[in-house]
Amino acid sequence: MFRPSVIRAFKDFVVAQATRRPILLLAPPNRYYARAFSGQASSSSSRHTVVTSLTKTCPSCGATLPTALPVCPSCNYIARIHDSISYHDILGLPYDPNPFAVDAALLKRRFLEAQRISHPDAWATKSESKRDIALHVSNAVNAAYKALSSPLHRIEYILQRNGFETEEADPLEDLELISEIMEVREEIETGGIERICTLEEDNDNKMCEVLSTINRSVAEKNWEETKAAAVRLKYLNGIADAIKQRLDNM
């Protein structure tokens, strides 16, 4: 049975759901994944080359490019990256057959390689236009790494690319899940270190189960199931953050 305080909080939560805007679950477009380049380019940026596909050789001198980026150290060629190019492509990672399955070590290595040649500091002595493009490319690399290195941000990004844009706010309608989350949060606030460590282990196991579901559903292109699992993952992530904060303060 739930404690009276949990029941009261749960009732307040349900009432709040009915009287205010729903909880934001999945980020609206461009919150996590904004690029420096916009399809409506400014008059100055429109003069710069914007690539809509990535090649293995430099379009300017023909040399083999060291990364997937349109950046050539041999002749100092550099170009902006169009928003249509996926984050996987930017970091030279496979998108098919399963874009959720990302090798973390390879991701980190490709990120460091990409930043090494595109960081604005590497172009500090070049022209203003090339420094501007380098900043754009570096920002795109950072955005790609931020999205793909986090399982939650990664699945939100994949859902967006497959046409499953969520509304600005998406309500959590699973009352059983709501009550479970609220009870766990109260235990985090009041429990001792042994209980909190147990909660952490339980939450880790639940996250592993959800990640497995997401991996399978993405491979099957079952986007409805993927979206539902992404919502659950967001709340489990919230519990993990609360546990970490509590342990840090003990």
Could you walk me through the main structural features you see in this protein, from its secondary elements to its overall organization?
- Helix 1 packs across helix 6.
- A two-stranded parallel ribbon has the order 1-4. The protein has a two-stranded antiparallel sheet with strand order 2-3.
- It is 55% helix and 3% strand.
- The two termini are 27 Å apart.
- With 250 residues, the chain is mainly α.
Give a quick set of tags describing it.
single chain, 250 residues, mainly alpha, two-stranded parallel sheet, two-stranded antiparallel sheet, 8 helices, elongated
- As laid out across the biggest beta sheet, the strand order is 1-4
Distance between the termini: 27 Å
The averaged pLDDT comes out at: 83
Low-confidence runs: 4-47
Q: Give the helix level as a range of percent.
A: 40-55%
> Describe the biggest sheet?
2 strands, parallel
Secondary-structure element order, N to C: HEEEEHHHHHHH
Strand percentage, roughly?
Answer: under 5%
Q: Count helical runs.
A: 8
What does the overall shape look like? elongated
Compute the number of strand runs.
4
User: Would you tell me the structural class of the helices and strands?
Assistant: mainly alpha
Q: Write down the Rg.
A: 22 Å
